[in-house]
Amino acid sequence: MKRKLNEDDVPEEVPSTAISNPDPTPSSFDLLEPRILRGIQKEKYSKPTSIQQKAIPLALEGKDILARSKTGSGKTAAYLLPILDRTLRRKAESTYQRCTSALILVPTRELGAQVTRMTESLAAYCGQDILVENLTRREDDKVQRARLAALPDIVIATPGRASANLNSGALSLNSLSHLVIDEADLVLAYGFDEDLKHLASSLPKGIQVMFLSATLNTEVETLKDLFSRDPIILELDEEEKNTGTINQYVVRCAEDEKFLLIYAIFMLKLVKGKTIVFVGDVDRSYRLKLFLEQFGIKSCVLNSELPVASRLHIVEEFNKNVYEILIASDENEVVLGDERPKNKRKEDGPEEDDDQRNSEPKLKENSEPATEGAASKTAQESEISASTNGNQAGRSVEPPKKKRKGPRLDRDYGVSRGIDFKNVSCILNFDLPTTPKSYSHRIGRTARAGKTGTVISFVIPKALYRKHKSTTFPTTQHDEEVLEKITRQQEKKGEPVIPYNFDMKRLDGFRYRLADALKGVTRIAIREARVRELRQEILKSDKLQRHFVENPEDLHHLRHDGESRPARIQPHLKHVPGYLLPGGKKEMADVGFVGINKTDGNRARKARMKDRARGKGRKTGAGRKADPLKTFNAKGRGKK
């Protein structure tokens, strides 16, 4: 029995009921193999999350699972831990023969690389007993065939890659025990339906199937009917509602005021910590990057044009706090007009509710070989589909315009889905997404693991659309309609979207600087910035890849937030005098003039003064020749 001192400083016994007992609820981690527990400690997991606490025991029993849990809730570890445990226990049996026992299907390369890293980290103390192979990498077919010849225990692939290797005989599913479809609602929207049907027909009977997603919709129901009999459905929205707090704000402003507000937010440091800025497309991301460079504000761009290795490196460096501002363009979420996935598209008729359909279309330009997604459309088919979609009966259909050729975009790219961005304090929707579903996935990048986060969304009222043509963006025409849907959706979750009224008059001092900066960001500057960065990233990714393998420390010196430089840099914009600050000094006596691109006065005048001091140049007054005509030759060209 424990003893303590009473009022008279005499030790006395304490009843056993006064001793605090630990939580009697057993942890799902206690069911796992000891080597896996060491991997969990390496990942610094203190206790299982809600999805892990419920899903791991069911998965260890071999049950099929369909889980819905918000982004950042630990879904990846929820299916990896039981797969690793059962694989290790199976290998301990005397009758075990080496084979591929688990296939994990993901929609994007970034998510495939992330799942691979987490699998290797959790299995770090398993030695050679766990072999993992990532097929989402862009590699030659012969290289992948050689990798699969080693019969890895866990294979991570997109449905297209898995189907292609299955056709070639490089991948065998005869001894498969586990099938996982991560971000299940997005897999079908990427046009992998034919590949999934092919995989479903090749799977052995009795395997365990797990679907995991942040939303449950008709696409997930389709996958459930295709792969599983009667899965156990786990919906954890209510339990996870209070695990992290998101403060959501919306700012109504004009098109050019978006740039004014983001300039003021970062220049005055109104946002603390790391920020992800979501924009509409690639051009928009470089326009914003070049604009911020005018004021000396560093940022890096993440988009589908960059090589996979560069994108993954940017995410890793952002997670390590190397960069504070990440500008992301997720083309898979941009819906111009009423383009929908082909399996849910309707030519005429009312629009479906966003909770019942997936409105994230595929990219129009496909950068994968023909084997990657057998059902994917060509660029021409996508253009025709987009031009005819939504036309009413009796309406003439215009032929598709010839599209200017540009850099190919990676169809397996996605930034707001699945990727684990750590310690993001603010999500800034510079361009509002086109659907409430896209909004939910974007804001899921912050307030992860019980932390708080802030979301700021810029909304263009219809009356202000196309009033500033140089900064306009097509999707902003429907901002108010989308905002109404977002507001209703978030109110159902108990997370209201609050209007935030900036006093724009207090930012009047910044407006002339806004005009100067926007003039420097021309279309030519944007195009040159895109080409320059793409050339640099390709050089880093391909030609220097072997060098980085031999010298990994050099990789840490790469920077993705450097100046793009094609825009005209104006040094005076980086300085914010006190009289421009809201509520700051109004007098200008102590503020010196800083010339544009002139840091040391008038260079031409100084040069003339030096020449005069040396006796060169034009002479004035009495020193000038009396007859200026004698200084020209007969033809009037040049001096004698």
From TrEMBL:
Skewed-composition ranges (Polar residues): 17-28, 377-394
Annotated Helicase C-terminal domain residues: 245-505
Catalytic reaction equation(s): ATP + H2O = ADP + phosphate + H(+)
Gene Ontology MF terms in the entry: ATP binding; hydrolase activity; RNA binding; RNA helicase activity
Region span, Disordered: 1-30, 337-414, 600-640
Keyword Hydrolase assigned: yes
PANTHER family cross-referenced by the UniProt entry: ATP-DEPENDENT RNA HELICASE RHLE-RELATED (PTHR47959), DEAD-BOX HELICASE 56 (PTHR47959:SF21)
Protein name (record): RNA helicase
Lineage: Eukaryota, Fungi, Dikarya, Ascomycota, Pezizomycotina
